[in-house]
Each structure stands twice: as C-alpha cells, then as structure tokens.
C-alpha cells in the first residue's frame, strides 16, 4: 500500500494506482475528457492535470502512478488556470453550435467549460478540415466537434476488435477517421455504436429517424405500430433522471400511445417467436440436419461481422431473423391479414437499444415490403417523448396491445448477455425432454459480464457444450477455434456489445466517469432478470399469442410458412470496398 | 477517399516480392514501418491496394497501416510522374498569375496538386517560393526552370516533354 | 576475434593511423604519404567521392601504389571549406578542392614532394609562406576532440583502422570488469546525455541494470532532427564502430543482448556506414555469440525513421521502433523500467555513446577532469548561420560562447554585429549579445532560458528579426507535433498564429501577454519534452528582445527589416536616374515612372520581394520601416 496526501488529506491506496484513482477513493473527482479505464489511458487531453510537490510541470492524474510520500494538489490556482486554458484551446477548434447540438446539456466538454468559466473564443484561430460522414444508415461522424480524445478509437479497437477508425495524419491536422478517410459504409464497421456511447461531445451520433416517424404518425393513411426491445425499458428512465436500473416499460407504453401509435406491441413477444424457431433449429441441427455449432443471429452487429470476416462460418449461423425483423414480418404478415389492413399501409417502428438495428431493418424484405420501416434508438425515443412535452415520470403505467404485446420471461432476458442462450435452453430442454419434470429455469453460468462464458448442460442424455460471447473482440478466439474444427461447442450466443443489448450503442449516454461501465451493465441487466422472475410464464413456448399464431397461421416451428416469414439467409461481403 | 485515384499498376511479381518480404518481416516485432518503407521503395508510393496487402499479411487493421503511413512525412500516398512539375505559388509568382498557370496545368493534365496523370507522365506540385522571384511566375519540370511563364505557354512547355516521350517510343 | 588478434591489428596499423595527426606526423608509417579525403556529408555534396576516385586513378597512373595510402574518412569539421583533403606527414590542408586540382596536387605534392601552396587553406600558410600545423589554426586550436577523435582520421568502413585507434579495447576491458564497476565508472565520469536534457548517463544505466527482467534492450537514438544539427550524423559517418562498441559495453553492463539503432532515413551515408560496420563486426565476431570469448552475446538491428521529429523523444522513438505512430507516451514508467516492447530499455544518443569507450579505457577521473562542475567532458556543436567557419566543433564544457563564435568560428561575416546565438533548435532559445561570455554548460544554458539540446548553434546578426526566428521555430514545431495532447497540438498552433499576427503588424500589447501566458501553459502542461520545450524560442526571444516585439506591435516596424508586412521599399528621387531597370524587373508591376525621371514604387502593389533593390545600380532603392 502507498501513502500519500491529496489536498493535504492522507490517502492510502494500493501500489500502481493512479492519482485519479487515489483521489476518487477519498471522494475527490478530477475532471477527464479522454480517460477510459483500461481502454484508453493516453494522458492526451490534459484536463486532469494536477500539481505534485517537487515536480517541475503539472502531471496528468489519469495515468500518473502514486508513490510513497507524494503530495498532490488538485485545485491550486495553477491547476485551475491550466485546465481552463486546455478547455479554451479545445474549444478553439470545436464547432460550438451547442444550443441545437444533440448532446446539449449532456456534453462533457460543455459541462467543464461552464464549470471552469471558459471564454470559448479566447484562442480563436484556424480550424481543421473536418470529416463529415453520414454514409451509413446508423451513424453520423461530425469531426467539427471532435476533440481528439480518441475514446472511440479505443473502444472500436480494444473492446470490439473491429478497429475501423484511427488517428490519421499528425499535428494540428490529426483527425479521427477510417483508413484513407473512407466512408464508414465501405469499411468493416458493424454499426455497434459503442463509439457514440463513449464520445464526450456531439461528434458521434446515430442517424436520426425521428422525423420519418413523426411524418408517418401525422399521415392519416398510415397505420403506425411500434414495438420496444427488452433493453429499452431498462435504460430509458436514465434520460428522465430516474436512477440506474429503473424499469419504465409501463410508462413507455403510455407515452407511445400519447404519441399516436395505433398499436403498442413489445419486441419481447417476437423474441419468444425467435426462441421457438431457434430452439427448434438447434434441435434439428443436433439431430444431424445442419452445421454445428450453431451461432445465434439476433445481433445485427455480429451478423455483419460474420459476413465480412467469417464467410466460412455463415452456414453455422442460425437462419432465424432477429426479434426485430420477426416483429415486422409478423405484423405485416399475420396481424394485417387478420385485421384486414393492407400491409403496405402499415408503418412498423421498432425502438431499440442499438444502432446496428437501423442497418438491419433493410436486411430482410418479405413479400416486397421491408419488415421494419423505422428504427428509433432509446435515446431517440427519449427525445421524441421530450419534444412532445410528455412528462414520462408522471405517466400512469400502460399495457401493451394484443396479439404481439404478450410475452414471457424468456423474451425479456434477451437484453442481457447470455439471455438468448438461457431462453433457448429453457425451451430446448422442454422440447427434448417433454416428460421430464424439468424445473431448471435459471442458467447462472451464462449470466454475468465475462467476455466468454462456457457451460455444459446435460439434456436428453447428451452433454451439450455452449458458449456465450459478448464484446466483439472476444469472438475471434472462438471463431478461430470453430474454423479450425477444434471446438466442441454445440451452440454459441454472440452479442456485439460488452454486456449485451442493455449496453447497446443506442442506449442513454452515461458520461464514462459517472459510473463504471460494468456497474451500469449490471444495474440495467438486473431490471430484466427481476422482470423475468416476476413472470408467471418464463418459457417462450408458454406464450399464448405465440402458440396461437403457430396453431392458426404458421404451422410447425421451422415449418414452411415459418421459414418464409421468420428466416433469412446470409452472404459473404467484402470487408472494405474501395471508393472511386 | 484520400490517396491516388490512378489505377493501380502493381504487377504480380511486385506483389509476390512484397508478400515474401512481409512474411520475412512479420516475425520481428514492429514490422509495420520497415514494411511500409519496403513497399514504398517497391511501388514508389503507398496506394490502397498495397496497404491492404500489408494489413492482411501483418495481421493489423488497415486503419493502423494508414495511421502510420500518414504520420511520417517520408511516406506518400501518391505516385510521382516521370516529369515532375512544380508551380510556384509564392507571393511574387502568385501576383503575376501563377494561379492562372496552375489552373491551366490542372485543366490540361486533369490532376490536382500532389497527383499524377493516368499515364504517369506528369505529376504536379504547387510549391512555396522557389527563390526565383525575379523570373516570376515560375514553373519547373524535373529541375528545368521556366520563368515569366504565361498561361498560353503551358501547352507548349508540356508538349516538349510529351514529344520527347513519343520520340523515345517511336 | 580475441585479445591477441586485436593487439596484432593495432600493432600492424597503429603507426599509420598515428601518422595522421599533425603532431605525431613524424612517426613511422608504412607509407611515404597518406591522402585523407573527407567523406562527410558536406564534402560529399561537394563531390568528394569523385575527387577520391580521381586521386585513386592518378595514384595508379603515376605508380604511387604502395607509397601513398589513400583514405576516405569521416567529417573533418570545417565544412565551410569543403571538399577538404589532408596530406600527411606534412598535414597539408587543401580546402575547396575541385576535380581539376587533383592532378596538380598529385604531381606537385605526391610526386614532387612539395605541397601546392596556392591550394592550401590560407590559415595554414604563414606570411613567410611556411606551412603551419592545422592544429594551430583558430578553428582547431581551441577544440578538444573526444567524441570526434576518429572522425576525419580513420576510414570509417575499415574496422581494422578503428581497432588500431584502440577500438574495441574498451569492450575488452569492460568484459573483464564486474558489471557494477562499469556502471560506477560511467556514473563517476559525470557524463550526461548529449541529446537534450542532460540526464546523468550513469544513472540511466543503473536504473536499467536494476530493473528485473528476462529481456532487456539497449537502443541508440540517431534520429537527429533539429534543423541545423549534424553532430550525430558526423559521428555515424566518421566513426560508426564507436557506437557499436559503446552499445556493446552498455548491453553487457545492463544485461541486454539485443540493440537497436534508430537512425534517420534522411542520412543514407550514415545508414550505409552503420550497415558496413555491423557487417564487419559480425564477421570478426565482435557482434554475435560469445564476443571476445567472454560468454557475452549481443547483436544490433538498424531501424530507419521515416520523417518525424518527435521520434527523437525517447518514448516516441520506442513506439516508432514498435512500428506504430511515433507518439510519445506518459512517463513514468520510464524506459529503464518499461521501454521497448514493455521491457527495460537503455536509450542514449550517438554522441553520448561516442564518449563511453574512452571513459572505460581512461577512467572516470580522466574524463571528469575536463568540463565544469556539473557538466563534464566536451560537447560537439554544429556551427551555422552568420558565421565564417560553419562546421563541426568539439570544445570542453565551459568554453565561452565568445570563444566559439569569434575564435573558433572566425566571427561574423561582413563585419556585422553579433546579435544572438540560438542553441537547442526548436527546443532551445536565443543567447543575446550581452551574454556572449556565458560559459556553456547544461546549467548555464538552462538558466538563461535556452538548452543544450543536441548541439545546433546558429549565429545571428543584426539582419535577423528575432520575432521571425521565433516564428520559424514555431512553424517547425507545429508541423512536427505528433497531435496527441491538446497543449502541443492546438497550443503551438495558436502560438504560431499569434506570432504571425505580430509579424503582420496586427497584434496588440494584450496579445503579447496572452502569448506569454500560453507559452507558460504549454511548458507546464504538454505530455512530452517536445511540447514542453516548444515555447522556448518564443520565451527566450521575448525575454531578451521584448523591445523588438513591441516595435512590431506598437510602432508597426520590424527593426531588422525582415517582416514583409512591416517594411516598404522607396526610391530616393535624388539618386534615381530613371533608367527603368527596376520597373522592368519588378514582378508586380509596382514601379512607375517615365524614362530619365525618378521612379516611384506603388506600396499597394509592391510585394516586397526586394528585386528592385538588388538590380538598382545607383543604390537609389532602400528598404525602409526598418531601423528608424
């Protein structure tokens, strides 16, 4: 242990701690802009500088290790002046359209600039040539607001193992972009949006679809329906000052109705459909029809990653559409027919914790219609609610509509890493052992935040080895093993985002210094597990609406009609496409 | 997309040499810089196709390769022509119409500063003052200095070099 | 290779090499005469290779083979007089040699036995027409060559000549010493890093020695990037083996078996000579396994830089060797603990290494007897700018700036006044005329706001504008900043913009305060040494030449007449005869007037190129707005 003082207060921390950590341990917060624990410890922004007795210059608290007898001062005039000038220099090369910026009031730079009383124009001068990239369906990069903290680079490369962005050129011309400043759409970007969630400013944001949704809602000829993904309820409250880990699904339902959606469904329900198909597909494959191991396919980031990097593994991907795409197909296929609505008049909106879903919506087209018409992220829904003057916290809880509003606990837990696996195992076990007094519902081994989780379950007299991967960088080792034929896994769940969908790129942004990422992930996931536990039906095949749909329209799971509506196919795609 | 838009003219033989070299470099740590240096020597510049091969063989991202290639001033994304044209945009030349000459060159050659023509005959660089203000406006071709150039002279100057080429070929 | 062989080689060649020093020239060499052609970069660009070939041809043609020993050496130092040829035993110093002189020298001197006086450097011929020793010239007299002891003496591509000058005997001695003793010797010598900040070399070695690790590295920083500095290049070109030997000693002392030399790709000659030296050393077993039968393995790899000044910073250099963008990383951890590939790494620059073998051979006391209290030994400077003897000089620490400029450097050309000397390149500062008696060492330079840096020493006269100089260095830093941390990436850019505002005559005194504040901020907050020292050129000029800044700001005048926005050209109507020559040469068509009548310059159209002043035969055109 190391003893030091911070602002004359004695501190004792373990060796190797940084000044930042030592200060935090006694309740002193040192501001940072580039720091992200374990992912990005650059000391680049210099906002965290502090004075250390005996040192000639100021040091960056985020990376400077403590030593015995160190005397640190975090708020001397010298320190405060330095931070102020650093912020003013950053502001001199930052487009300051704060009033209408996406991140207004939730911008780390803005908050600090206010706190340090910065004169934003003090060092006005030349600004960089900015990259503006809105080439994808899901993300906009506006480098005029980029402050070169490089958090996005770190998360893309180190957490996700994708690495499509980096620092290009040097000196004042340094900028974050893809190789050759290519458009993101032509790179192996998977659309996870993790970069957005770590961006301290408004340089990165999702491609907005709010206006399209509002137009559809205002169009009397359109029958607009909506469904929210499991993770949305676990996080939306954060944008309305609710504590982390608050379930706001009831209020969301009411708000969506206020907004004018004709039907408020729940993607949890179609998650149950996904499990019906996927569990049965797994069983078929286990019985020798199809390649093993089977990978889940509900995460669009993973699907895109596989198509660009692992063409040889595409036959291993479950052919099931994701719950989102099934949702659209079922609404336009089953619901329209039953209610005598022309499916072309239906406009299906999904609310997702995910940016990649915006890209996925165009993936599957059934009967000439895209399954999904618009995708809103959790953040966009929050904004839509706010724009419409709806006071979410004061709303009464509302119910979802039939038929796709009914769901089981299995559908809910899709949002946490391991949830799809757990839901599938619940159903597969029941199908394979219909007569066994099988009571196992909670598969603890697949829960939690480890990057790769493994377990072996004995089902119908056979050992089935499974793996659960979250954080795309962890997928490489698993895929390499499968490719080499060295894996004895039977079923593998892959979620692109570390922690699963609750930590998706479309979720509310919590400044990285507010809470440790894992804590956020745990709190959000706990909402889902709690809701699951409270459900009477916790197995997908117990969902009444699901059973009804199979009995009356779809036939058997994985049957012909189910295949037509609920399954898809994959094709290899080039990682990079050269621009002309 | 940054970088040269000229069609890539690398040969199979060059690619084989590059891949062999990369295989040799890979086991040593820090192979990227020597790899880029070798590739630039081999191809004269570092186009997309070459950086892709390097990324692939060294098992690093294209973004990493490009980040390094644009950090060091020695590396170039553009090939040089057989005849390298410099047009001085220093103050003295500029007020004497070197801007017009520059426009004319860009028009005739169809390239911007730093680029190279399709046939790789000419590359164009707008330069800072070359120190011949008395002869402004000045353009240079492979070290030959042309002073007091008028926009109308440009075609004639270029054709001298083109003619030299067709003579060599004919 | 073993001790016996080393000694044999020394015995065989020793007297030849000894005879290449003027005061030892009477020694018995195996040759009647030895012709040394400078192969340094300065002389090379003056075609010294062709001169060498011409000598070789002539020597063959005139059947002098066996009698005359022709050697291409490293830099002699007096680059201003290049290409340079020295012939022993007379020690005749031929300056500015041209190809057509070779035959004359061969016939007259080598065949005829009489030096060709009219081609000799005039300072080596006294008023009586007698040849005086080169060592007695102003340029060499005050120098003491330690790091450069072999430069210009031996053939850098011949390992035997290096051995004959005690080469690799220091390694032999070190391999027989306990490791701790070697480090003690280096520590006691007081040697400090010659690359910049002047950290105690022995301490660095000790830290690396103390670090626990299975693998350690030694590295040599040969990424000399300061504009105007070429000390390290000259050592590498003139004496590459000294670096290899020193690195071997260092590696043995700290427990490393692998070394890297990071050298600028812009130094092709240095790279080539290093490659040759490494190859020769490997061939004779001075690199590789079981060196000198002492059970010590060591080898060296060359890594080329690719044009980034920041890679001279130690952590950036290592990041670059790892094949990444050469961005510095925070310290601690220091390289001695966690360096290349995360392993303890000892990094010294070329000149630092060049001192090591002599320290080992002669002992720390011998070394520390030279220099000042805290700065021991000698320092090599690259003299440049407004000075007669541009070139490379090595002087004891504590030599005064006056001695360097006026005695060794021969003073300022055209009788102009000394205004300042800039040391330390973009990280350093200016020493004003009133401090010309400063005895140069690490402390004294730092105390006056400059720094030793790697040793560039640029002399400026009254025609240099100090604001313009500061701007020049800042432009360099802005170009070379790695772009990682805010203070350097944005701060230096803003600093440069402020300087432009001043030289454009658009700044206010308030801007000056803001600029000063920004300077101190950048020093205090940047991540690495490049950023922290970037404001030095501004701060030091501001300290000593504040009036000059104020003149730009308040009076809108550039006293030195350099800043274009603040000067104008005028025609004196009394002197102008209306010859029209200026108007015809004016590239901006800014001069009007009828023939035989005084002309006038239109200040709006004038672009201040100064051509008119140059072409006027009647001195009628003057730059004004300068000195009032």
Describe the structure.
With 580 residues, chain A is α/β, with parallel strands linked by helices. Chain A folds into three domains: 2-75, Ubiquitin-like (UB roll) (Roll); 92-206, Alpha-Beta Plaits, CATH 3.30.70; 210-566, Rossmann fold. Chain A contains 19 helices and 20 strands. The termini of chain A are far apart. By secondary structure, chain B is an alpha+beta fold. Chain B folds into two domains: 12-69, no CATH class; 83-169, Glutaredoxin (3-Layer(aba) Sandwich), CATH 3.40.30.10. Chain B is built from six helices and four strands; from the N terminus they run ααααβαβββα. Chain B has a four-stranded mixed sheet, with helices on one face. With 628 residues, chain C is α/β, with parallel strands linked by helices. Chain C folds into five domains: 11-135, Glutaredoxin (3-Layer(aba) Sandwich); 166-368, NADH-ubiquinone oxidoreductase 51kDa subunit (Rossmann fold, 3-Layer(aba) Sandwich), CATH 3.40.50; 378-464, Ubiquitin-like (UB roll); 467-555, NADH-ubiquinone oxidoreductase 51kDa subunit, iron-sulphur binding domain (de novo design (two linked rop proteins), Up-down Bundle); 567-624, Alpha-Beta Plaits (2-Layer Sandwich), CATH 3.30.70.20. Chain C is built from 25 helices and 17 strands. In chain C, a hairpin with a 3-residue loop joins strand 3 (85-88) and strand 4 (92-94). In chain C, helix 18 (466-480) packs antiparallel against helix 19 (486-503) and helix 20 crosses helix 22. The longest helix of chain C has 18 residues, at 486-503. Chain A binds chain C through residues 42-47, 49, 57-58, 60, 63-65, 78, 81-82, 85-86, 89-90, 92-93, 122-123, 125-126, 148, 167, 169-174, and chain C through 308, 325, 329-330, 332-333, 478-487, 489-491, 493-494, 497, 514, 517-518, 521, 523-527, 532.
């Amino acid at each position: 242990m190391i003893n030091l003082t911070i602002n004359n207060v004695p501190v004792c921390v373990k060796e190797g701690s940084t000044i930042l950590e030592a200060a935090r341990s006694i309740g002193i917060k040192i501001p940072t802009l580039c720091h992200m624990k374990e992912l990005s410890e650059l000391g680049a922004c210099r906002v965290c500088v502090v004075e250390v007795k005996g040192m000639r210059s100021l040091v960056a608290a985020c990376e400077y290790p403590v030593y015995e007898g160190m005397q640190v001062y975090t708020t001397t005039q010298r320190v405060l002046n330095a931070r102020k000038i650093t912020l003013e220099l950053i502001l001199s090369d930052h487009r300051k359209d704060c009033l209408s910026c996406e991140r207004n009031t939730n911008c780390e730079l803005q908050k600090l600039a206010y706190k340090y009383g910065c004169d934003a124009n003090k060092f006005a001068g030349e600004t960089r040539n900015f990259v503006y990239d809105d080439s994808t369906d899901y993300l906009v990069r506006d480098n005029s607001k980029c402050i070169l903290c490089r958090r996005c680079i770190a998360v893309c490369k180190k957490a996700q193992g994708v690495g499509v962005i980096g620092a290009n050129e040097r000196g004042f011309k340094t900028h974050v972009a893809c190789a050759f400043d290519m458009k993101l759409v032509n790179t192996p970007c998977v659309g996870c949006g993790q970069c957005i969630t770590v961006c301290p400013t408004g340089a990165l944001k999702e491609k907005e679809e709010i206006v399209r949704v509002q137009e559809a809602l205002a169009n009397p000829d359109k029958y607009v329906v909506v469904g929210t993904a499991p993770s949305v309820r676990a996080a939306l409250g954060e944008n309305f000052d609710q504590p982390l880990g608050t379930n706001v699904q009831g209020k969301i339902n009411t708000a969506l109705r206020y907004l004018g959606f004709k039907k408020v469904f729940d993607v949890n329900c179609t998650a149950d459909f996904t499990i019906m198909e996927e569990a049965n597909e797994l069983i078929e494959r286990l019985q020798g029809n199809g390649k093993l191991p089977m990978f889940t396919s509900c995460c669009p980031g993973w699907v895109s990653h596989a198509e660009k990097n692992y063409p040889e593994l595409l036959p291993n991907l479950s052919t099931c559409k994701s719950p989102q795409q099934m949702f659209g197909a079922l609404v336009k296929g089953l619901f329209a027919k039953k209610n005598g609505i022309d499916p072309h008049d239906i406009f299906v909106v999904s609310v997702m914790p995910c940016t990649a879903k915006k890209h996925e919506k165009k993936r599957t087209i059934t009967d000439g219609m895209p399954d999904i018409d618009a995708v809103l992220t959790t953040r966009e829904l929050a904004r839509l609610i706010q724009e419409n003057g709806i006071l979410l916290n004061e709303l009464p809880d509302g119910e979802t509509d039939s038929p796709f509003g009914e769901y089981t606990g299995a559908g809910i837990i899709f949002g946490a890493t391991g949830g799809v696996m757990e839901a599938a195992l619940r159903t597969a076990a029941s199908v394979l052992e219909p007569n066994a007094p099988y009571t196992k519902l909670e598969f603890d081994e697949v829960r939690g935040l480890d990057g790769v989780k493994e377990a072996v379950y004995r089902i119908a007299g056979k050992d089935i080895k499974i793996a659960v991967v979250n954080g795309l960088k962890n997928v490489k080792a698993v895929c390499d093993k499968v490719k080499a034929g060295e894996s004895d896994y039977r079923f593998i769940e892959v979620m692109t985002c570390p922690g699963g969908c609750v930590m998706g790129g479309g979720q509310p942004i919590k400044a990285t210094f507010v809470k440790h990422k894992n804590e956020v992930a745990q709190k959000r996931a706990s909402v889902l597990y709690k809701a699951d536990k409270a459900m009477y039906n916790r197995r997908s095949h117990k969902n009444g609406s699901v059973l009804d749909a199979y009995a009356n329209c779809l036939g058997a799971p994985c049957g012909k009609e189910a295949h037509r509506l609920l399954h898809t196919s994959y094709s290899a795609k080039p990682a990079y496409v050269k621009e002309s | 997309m940054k970088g040269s838009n000229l069609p890539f003219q690398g040969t199979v033989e060059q690619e084989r040499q590059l891949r062999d070299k990369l295989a040799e470099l890979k086991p040593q740590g820090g192979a990227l810089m020597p790899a880029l240096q070798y590739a630039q020597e081999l191809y004269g510049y570092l186009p997309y196709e070459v950086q892709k091969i390097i990324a692939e063989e060294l098992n690093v991202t294209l973004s990493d390769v490009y980040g390094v290639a644009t950090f060091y001033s020695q590396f170039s994304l553009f090939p040089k022509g057989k005849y390298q044209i410099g047009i001085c945009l220093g103050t003295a030349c500029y007020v004497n119409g070197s801007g017009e000459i520059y426009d004319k060159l860009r028009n005739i050659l169809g390239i911007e500063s730093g680029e190279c023509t399709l046939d790789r005959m000419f590359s164009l660089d707008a330069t800072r003052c070359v120190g011949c203000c008395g002869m402004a406006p000045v353009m240079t071709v492979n070290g030959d200095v042309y002073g007091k150039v008028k926009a109308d002279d440009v075609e004639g100057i270029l054709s001298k070099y083109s003619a030299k080429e067709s003579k060599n070929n004919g | 290779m073993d001790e016996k062989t080393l000694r044999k080689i020394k015995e065989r060649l020793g007297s030849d090499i000894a005879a290449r020093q003027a005061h030892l020239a009477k020694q018995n060499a195996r040759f009647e005469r030895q012709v040394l052609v400078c192969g340094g970069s300065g002389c090379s660009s003056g075609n010294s290779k062709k001169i060498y070939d011409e000598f070789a041809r002539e020597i063959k043609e005139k059947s002098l083979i066996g009698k005359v020993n022709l050697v291409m050496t490293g830099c002699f130092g007096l680059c201003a007089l290049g290409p340079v040829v020295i012939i022993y035993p007379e020690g005749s110093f031929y300056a500015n040699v041209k190809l057509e002189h070779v035959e004359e020298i061969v016939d007259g001197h080598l065949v005829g036995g009489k030096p060709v006086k009219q081609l000799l450097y005039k300072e080596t011929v006294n008023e009586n027409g007698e040849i005086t020793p080169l060592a007695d010239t102003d340029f060499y007299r005050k120098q003491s060559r330690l790091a450069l002891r072999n430069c210009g003496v031996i053939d850098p591509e011949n390992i035997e000549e290096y051995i004959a000058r005690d080469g690799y005997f220091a390694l032999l001695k070190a391999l027989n010493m306990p490791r701790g003793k070697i480090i003690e010797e280096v520590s006691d010598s007081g040697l400090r890093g010659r690359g910049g900040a002047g950290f105690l070399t022995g301490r660095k070695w000790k830290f690396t020695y103390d670090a626990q690790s299975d693998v350690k590295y030694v590295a040599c920083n040969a990424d000399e990037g300061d504009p105007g500095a070429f000390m390290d290049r000259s050592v590498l070109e003139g004496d590459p083996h000294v670096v290899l030997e020193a690195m071997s000693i260092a590696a043995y002392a700290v427990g490393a078996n692998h070394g890297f030399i990071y050298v600028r790709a812009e130094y092709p000659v240095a790279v080539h000579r290093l490659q040759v030296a490494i190859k020769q050393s490997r061939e004779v077993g001075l690199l590789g396994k079981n060196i000198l039968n002492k059970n010590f393995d060591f080898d060296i790899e060359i890594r080329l830089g690719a044009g980034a000044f920041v890679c001279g910073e130690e952590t950036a250099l290592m990041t670059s060797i790892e094949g990444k963008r050469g961005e510095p990383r925070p310290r601690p951890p220091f390289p001695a603990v966690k360096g290349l590939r995360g392993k303890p790494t000892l990094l010294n620059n070329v000149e630092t290494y060049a001192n090591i073998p002599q320290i080992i051979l002669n002992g720390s006391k011998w070394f520390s007897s030279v220099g000042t209290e805290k700065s021991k030994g000698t320092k090599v400077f690259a003299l440049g700018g407004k000075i007669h003897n541009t070139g490379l000089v090595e002087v004891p620490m504590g030599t005064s700036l006056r001695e360097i400029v006026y005695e060794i450097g021969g003073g300022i050309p055209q009788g102009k006044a000394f205004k300042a000397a800039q040391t330390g390149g973009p990280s350093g500062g200016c020493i004003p005329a009133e401090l010309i008696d400063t005895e140069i060492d690490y402390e004294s330079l730092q105390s006056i706001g400059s720094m030793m840096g790697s040793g560039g020493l640029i002399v400026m006269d009254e025609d240099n504008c100090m604001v313009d100089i500061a701007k020049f260095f800042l432009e360099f830093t802005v170009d070379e900043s790695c772009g990682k941390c805010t203070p350097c990436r944005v701060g230096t850019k803003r600093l440069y913009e402020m300087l432009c505002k001043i030289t454009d005559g658009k700044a206010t005194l308030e801007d000056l305060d803001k600029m000063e504040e920004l300077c101190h901020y950048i020093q205090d907050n940047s991540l690495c040494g490049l950023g922290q020292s970037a404001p030095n050129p501004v701060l030091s000029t501001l300290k000593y030449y504040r009036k000059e800044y104020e003149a730009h700001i308040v009076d809108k005048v550039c006293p030195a007449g350099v800043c274009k926005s603040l000067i104008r050209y005028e025609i004196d109507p009394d002197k102008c005869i209306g010859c029209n020559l200026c108007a015809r040469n004016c590239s901006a068509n800014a001069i009007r007037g009828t023939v035989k009548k005084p002309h006038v310059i239109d200040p709006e159209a004038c672009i201040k190129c100064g051509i008119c002043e140059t072409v006027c035969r009647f001195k009628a055109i003057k730059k004004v707005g300068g000195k009032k």
